[in-house]
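Task: sequence in, structure out. Protein: Helix-turn-helix domain-containing protein.
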Amino acid sequence: MTSTDLGDALKTWRAAVAPQDAGLPSGGQRRIPGLRREELSQLAGISADYLTRLEQGRATNPSPQVVEALARALRLGQDERLHLFHLAGLVPPGPDRISSYITPGVQRMLERLQHTPVAVYDAMWTLLHANPLYVALMGEWHGKDRNGAWRNFVGTGTRVRQTPDSLRDLRAATAADLRRTAARYPDDPRLRELIRQLRADSPLFSELWNSGAVAEHSSARKTVDHPQLGAITLDCDVLHVAGDDLRLMVYTAEPGSPDAERLALLSVIGTQFSDNIT
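Result:
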């Protein structure tokens, strides 16, 4: 296998994705069909320079995380995703590893929820995708804060209004949910490292972890303090994708309420405050 096989495949798949299918505007003159390099790099969360080097064969050893992000951004099916891992010289994640793959079915579901704040998390609560309205509502997260457990125990927090009791309930539910995930994926190295760091950096997490509680993190009613629109109270439902261990976090407002009006306004002006993240 030559060093350009990976690059050729990436270019072929990039040309096959219509911008509108990836949630991008399709206007303007395009010299070639499909996504531009800058668009794919943005969707995958990597630099355009690194993507260029991958396509040109000057970079040949992408990490599993980069390959997973590219497969997701290119909307590859399961067989194509496995082929991309093989082209990169990597063993695809097995059933004993937490998957970061967003299936085409979930992708299509996200496209139909453009006017609803929705984000996709993996089984260890790492953010995989957030649509523009979710980002406008909750803001952007970077680095370790992309993991919800880290964010709630150690990181910078969120815009969600919390009382001391509600924050402790959230943290207890998060720790119990992680313990449930750890029982399912006992050998996943990323999960084990996350738990190790949380136990080292958060005495409360260590205490909750040692309690042995196991539970599934579910729905709640939340008030978000938005910097432009003020308080917005929404129902937050966590939907689990059977067989894939993905979690869809969906925010909705009671129809006809002031919160529904604020959410509708945010769907109009929200992109002025934030960009999409993947």
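DSSP finds twelve helices and five strands in the chain.
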